[in-house]
Design goal:
18 strands; binds magnesium ion; six-stranded mixed sheet; binds adenosine-5'-diphosphate; alpha+beta
């Protein structure tokens, strides 16, 4: 720690850093930050910075509003751009603590750390590589985003069809400035839709990276006069934006999902992990797909999963096992979308997988044909259940799943469910244009 502090102080001097941005995530996964002038650096490094927790959504009650921001020194980074005023700033991601010195149970980072402790008590390190997708839209004269762009390109197209190319390039450079190893950036299926993949890392780093990623993408798009959105299904009739999570467990530097003696190269642990995810997926779909709108992406025909099954080949099921083996052996969970709180999503997915390993939950046979093309009877014969079809259904499933609720802790569970129920209840009071078209004349 002393070395880290020394390094930070030295870097701040060398780079003439003017402000330190302290960042946290609220329960719904929005990034929140506070900028402190460099004169406050000792206070920051001594964990003495306070903020009012009650003014952050779903965080704390008024009575327990005083909270502390304890920066995770390993997340210190010089922002790879100057501010509007020409200053160089630095950023640190924080853990939220209470005045009594204990971690705040409503801090999403704490929830993930708890889940990771469980994994490490079983000897496992959890690695995750995300594949976030997003759209970029034009903005009107007032600066508000419109659901249009000048992009007519499709999957993997090249410029000049793909107008996003320059923006993707700038995003990639900025991400590298944040220490990311970007593996690939490409145009996605939808017009104006993109995916940028960065290298997998331990789950805490990856969750922090997803927060940083969303910020960087939005900022750079804005620099180009575009608006980037991680909304799961912004335009009906074309592909929604997902965020597949590629997951693996390591033990002593070895990927324990790989077993060369098995015909399919997958170890028992990998199979149980899949079994656990399949068992609990309904219980944590509210976390991985947290918006009313998330469920408009989870429909058939767009490569988004609808049914609870796994496959070694097909891209229609919930879980796909990419062909790579050895160090890259991984379980790809395909339902999450980029509007989720990454800390809670990774914590619950891990908890489900570990429950599978603990209880040796063997998954059913893989389904290697296109589930979209199966009729209901065929799905029933194969015992293929559907994912929750709405936010409401997934909230009910969450409220019934003790393992997932335990992983979230009662504070986060209660705040999350009440926020999401409120969102749902507001939504169902609205009359949709589809209903008018369908019913007004007919009845
Ligand atoms: P897809 O074929 O589904 O499009 P991508 O190549 O876009 O896959 O993304 C693969 C992701 O998986 C990357 O983030 C990569 O770093 C990650 N990954 C590779 N090996 C592992 C591993 N062992 N554990 C977790 N993630 C991994
Ligand atoms: Mg991909
Ligand atoms: Mg790819
Ligand atoms: Mg994709
Ligand atoms: Mg994928």
């Amino acid at each position: 720690r002393d070395e880290q502090i020394e390094f930070i102080k030295k870097t701040i001097k060398e780079k003439n850093v003017r402000f330190i941005i302290l960042q946290i995530a609220d329960i719904l996964g929005s990034a929140k930050s506070m900028a402190l002038p460099i004169t406050q650096i000792d206070k920051i490094l001594n964990n003495e910075v306070m903020f009012d927790g009650s003014s952050i959504d779903g965080f704390a009650r008024i009575e327990e509003s005083d909270m502390y921001l304890n920066p995770d020194l390993s997340t210190f980074i010089i922002l790879p751009w100057k501010t509007h005023n020409g200053y160089t700033n630095a950023r640190m991601i924080c853990d939220v603590y209470m005045p009594n010195g204990k971690p705040f149970k409503g801090c999403p980072r704490y929830v993930l750390k708890k889940a990771l402790e469980k994994a490490s008590s079983m000897g496992f390190d959890f690695f995750v590589g995300p594949e976030p997708e997003f759209y970029m839209f034009n903005v009107d004269e007032k600066g508000s985003p419109v659901l249009e762009n000048n992009d007519k390109a499709a999957y993997f197209d090249m410029a000049p069809m793909d107008r996003g190319e320059d923006v993707r390039e700038a995003i990639t450079i900025a991400l590298e400035g944040f220490g990311f190893e970007v593996e690939a950036a490409h145009h996605e299926c939808g017009p104006g839709q993109h995916e940028i993949d960065f290298k997998y890392a331990d789950a805490l780093t990856t969750a922090d990276n997803i927060m940083t990623f969303r910020y960087v993408v939005k900022k750079v798009a804005d620099d180009f006069g575009l608006f980037a959105s991680f909304m799961p299904k912004p335009v009906e009739g074309i592909a929604g934006s997902g965020m597949h999570l590629n997951m693996s467990l390591f033990k002593n530097g070895q990927n324990i999902f790989f077993d060369e003696n098995k015909e399919n190269g997958l170890s028992d642990e990998a199979m149980y992990f899949i079994g656990g995810i399949l068992k609990h997926i309904k219980g944590f779909t509210a976390i991985t797909n947290p918006l009313v709108n998330s469920y408009k992406r989870l429909v058939s025909g767009f490569e988004a999963p609808v049914n609870i099954a796994w496959s070694e080949k097909n891209r229609s099921p919930l879980i796909r096992i990419p062909a790579k083996r050895g160090l890259s052996t991984r379980v790809e969970l395909r339902n999450p979308d980029p509007s989720c709180n990454p800390y809670l999503a990774l914590a619950t997915a891990l908890t489900a997988g570990l429950d599978g390993i603990k209880n040796k939950i063997y998954p059913p046979e893989p389904v290697n044909k296109n589930i979209y093309e199966m009729c209901l009877e065929e799905r029933q014969e194969n015992h293929i259940e559907a994912l929750p079809k709405s936010l409401y259904e997934s909230i009910l499933e969450l409220s019934k799943n003790e393992i997932i609720k335990d992983a979230l802790g009662s504070h986060v569970t209660d705040k999350f469910i009440s926020a999401k129920l409120g969102e749902w209840e507001n939504y169902i009071t609205k009359v949709h244009k589809w209903e008018i078209e369908q019913y007004l004349r007919a009845y």
